[in-house]
Amino acid sequence: GQGVDEPLSATGFRQADAAGLFLSNVKFTHVFSSDLLRAKQTAAAILGKNRFCKDLEIKYDARLRERKYGVAEGRPLADLKAMAKDAGEQCPSFTPSGGETLDEVRERARDFFEFLCQLAVELEQKEQGKPSAPGRSSGTSGEQFVFPWTNHCSEAEPSSAGNGSSTVLDANILVVSHGAYMRNWIGYMVSDLNCTLPANLTKSQLSSVSPNTGVSHFIIKLENGNLLKPNITCVCLNQDSHL
């Protein structure tokens, strides 16, 4: 939950380092993290292993915090399940006293996602305003952003999405958050924004909580800067081959 702001364990640091090595060749343009300590440490560990972005500023945002669990904060998961059972509800949708509802978590996720989309649009507008700026479409994206999915995922590389030509990304954003929060965010993108999912993804995989340092990759296209209708493709979900 939010109320327990403990540091990573020794295992957590090893997992964060493993994620950093896995993503070491990805050139990020922005990094955002929950302002809870365990997420801050994970983001720092990932950047610390990166070939290109060791000095990139990490921006901390309270909208990326884990779901608030009220009276269940800091207690074992078994206690939360028992509370839900006593209330006659399923655990994922149960809201303990003083906790956040799923709708409230989803609203935080929606607000942050729209903020990211606005950021990308502003970056593109700035790029277009430069008189000597090259076009955003080119064949050089492979030199700029190297994604490690080829051997770990059945889905296509970002450069093959759409019309098959490589496109230089306006932004390549690393977001470090928490399991229950990310499950709600992904649910929002699937149900509200019609995100395209990998063909081999099962319903149970879609609804499961990511393992610690699980990596998910989404390509978001904003045609003509249209913030209301983002085109979202999920390349991989909760990737854990680095663990």
TrEMBL record:
Gene Ontology CC entries for this record: cytosol
Q: Which UniProt keywords apply?
A: Hydrolase
Which Pfam families does the protein's record reference? His_Phos_1
- InterPro entries in the record: His_Pase_superF_clade-1, His_PPase_superfam, Phosphoglycerate_Mutase
Keyword Hydrolase assigned: yes
- What Gene Ontology molecular-function terms does this entry list? fructose-2,6-bisphosphate 2-phosphatase activity
Tell me the residue numbers annotated for binding substrate: R38, E66, R67, K68, Y69
Task: Give the UniProt record's GO annotations in the biological process aspect.
Answer: negative regulation of glycolytic process; regulation of pentose-phosphate shunt
Question: Is Hydrolase among this UniProt entry's keywords?
Answer: yes
Could you tell me what this protein is called?
TIGAR bisphosphatase
Q: Which organism is it from?
A: Agelaius phoeniceus (Red-winged blackbird)
